[in-house]
Amino acid sequence: MEHTKLNGSCLCGAVSYEVTAPFALMVHCHCSRCRKGTGTGHATNLIAPPTQFTWLTGEEALSHFDLPSAKSFSKWFCTQCGSPMPRLTRDGQRMIIPAGSLDSVPPIQPSDHIFWGSRAPWACDSSGLPTHDEYPESWK
Ligand SMILES: [Zn+2]
Ligand SMILES: [Zn+2]
Q1: Which CATH number describes the domain made up of 5-139?
Q2: 9 CA distance to ligand 1 centroid (A)?
Q3: Where residue 139 falls among pLDDT bands split at 50, 70, 90?
């Protein structure tokens, strides 16, 4: 099994972390929450078990927002620069890692577009990857 150590950090550098491959998934999410939370057309996230994740610096600079109307959507961010940072799902089962926060190249590529049914009219095209209106059937 591959055990590549990857590093990530926020824009100002206060917060940094380390995560060990392999990742469960890497997907593009086009839901309206991800659009608001990232300020762009979609979020690209990696998913890993929390046991493979460690904060290195700046954990005290993190803040988070749990969307009250959502079961699990939340956003963790650096309070100095506002960059989206990895978050632990509210059930404690997964780390959702914004791919753009990585300083290393992950050994995985995005496999799917999810919440394609909610995409903005100006979204990037699917580049031939499978698209799902919400979550893929196999995740339910
Ligand atoms: Zn920062
Ligand atoms: Zn989303």
Answers
A1: 2.170.150.70
A2: 8
A3: confident
